[in-house]
Design a protein that fits this description.
heterodimer; A: alpha/beta; six-stranded parallel β-sheet; 9 helices; 46% helix; B: alpha/beta; 8 helices; 37% helix
């Protein structure tokens, strides 16, 4: 599926990219997820943005804080399973009061075929909240831009630490071609 | 366990770090928690130092974001073998980006000094310089002679490559020299030195 075809299916993904652009996001660290694939492609295609694949999500937490030290706004994209990998690294955000914005595609909460995704999916919001990160959630396509925009403003105008969860129902069922 | 080398470093960490920072006066420095933070602070506090007191494994990744944001400044990580071992994946992420202005110095005594000198994996078979090269960094050095500090400083100041210098230091514990622990303060101070205002 090419970018254009996916754009037709999920206009809210274009809205996320546009909001990153208009908020002045310069660096985007990520561990890939199918739900982020379109945004990741757009980031790599944009000459003013730097896509930074990281091997584990906690690296991304440190990298976006480093970006802010150097004056760049940065965001982190990950899947819900990656949130557990970040917990201790979130201390940096808390201790230094770094502005922080992460976009998380959810697994393990809606028509999940692979129950190995469920424990961390169920604990995702709590894991953020126990480390002092404010959680917003987008459940419907028409609410994504509003919620992501609110999160970006809270982070980069207000200095808050914000995670926006993108519901699994929003992203759609993963197709399992069981033979 | 596969004990490869219990201790072979002879370099004095405090003296080496002091001379290194003197040779790279304009570098933005991020320190790994524990002794490297103490060494850098003992060399003289600077606004351009960002001391980590936690976030183990995060120093190099933090430096990556900083190096990309500040391509015209030299970024220098000074950390320990244990801290870098916990963030070994970040070397792969750095090798994927190859910022021209990033140097990582690992002060390798093969031990966790902060917790009672238990052996680290660099005593048990891991070679951090070899890891760095395998992760596609431009260069890696294993430093056994303090006078090779100039090779590191040249890379830092030239800003035309990213690399890692593994410095084999004595497993000697100095009295702790404690940098500020207030993260908000060191963040705002660091950003202010680059001309950025707080919120």
């Amino acid at each position: 599926m090419d970018v254009k075809e996916q754009s037709l299916l999920h206009p809210w993904k274009d809205e996320i990219f546009s909001l990153f652009k208009s908020s002045g996001i310069r660096q985007v660290a990520y561990v890939p997820d199918a739900g982020h694939a379109q945004v990741i492609r757009q980031i790599h295609a944009d000459s003013e943005m730097r896509g930074i694949p990281v091997t584990t999500e906690e690296e991304g937490v440190a990298a976006v804080c480093g970006a802010w030290l150097g004056g760049d706004k940065a965001a982190l994209l990950m899947q819900s399973s990656g949130v557990g990998n970040c917990v201790n690294m979130f201390s940096v955000i808390n201790n230094c009061r770094f502005p922080f914005f992460t976009l998380v595609t959810m697994r393990g909460e809606w028509a999940e075929f692979n129950q190995w995704q469920t424990p961390m999916g169920r604990a995702t919001q709590e894991a953020f909240e126990m480390m002092g990160i404010n959680v917003l959630r987008a459940d419907r396509p028409e609410s994504v831009a509003d919620v992501v925009g609110a999160g970006l403003d809270a982070a980069f105008l207000g200095g808050d630490a914000v995670a926006v969860l993108l519901s699994q129902s929003l992203i759609g069922r993963k197709k399992w071609d069981v033979k | 366990m596969n004990i490869v080398r219990k201790q072979q470093g002879t370099i004095d960490r405090r003296e080496f770090v002091k001379n290194l920072i003197e040779a790279c006066p304009d570098a933005l420095v991020i320190t790994g928690l524990g002794s490297p933070s103490y060494d850098v602070f003992a060399a003289g506090d600077r606004d351009q130092n960002f001391y980590l007191w936690g976030a183990m494994g995060g120093a190099a990744a933090m430096a990556l974001g900083l190096a990309i944001a500040q391509p015209n400044k030299s970024v220098l990580v000074i950390t320990g073998d244990g801290e870098q071992l916990m963030g070994m994946g970040s070397l792969a992420s750095i090798g994927a980006q190859k910022p021209k202005n990033l140097t990582i110095v690992t002060l390798d005594n093969g031990h966790y000094a902060e917790t009672g000198m238990q052996m680290s994996h660099t005593s048990l078979g891991t070679d951090l310089s070899a890891v760095a090269l395998a992760c596609n960094l431009d260069w890696a050095l294993t430093i056994t002679d303090p006078s090779d500090l100039n090779k590191i400083a040249l890379h830092v100041n030239q800003r035309n490559s990213c690399g890692l210098a593994n410095v084999l230091i004595q497993a000697h514990e100095y009295p702790k020299a404690l940098p500020p622990r207030d993260g908000v303060y060191i963040k705002n101070r660091f950003r202010n030195a680059l001309g950025f205002e707080p919120f």
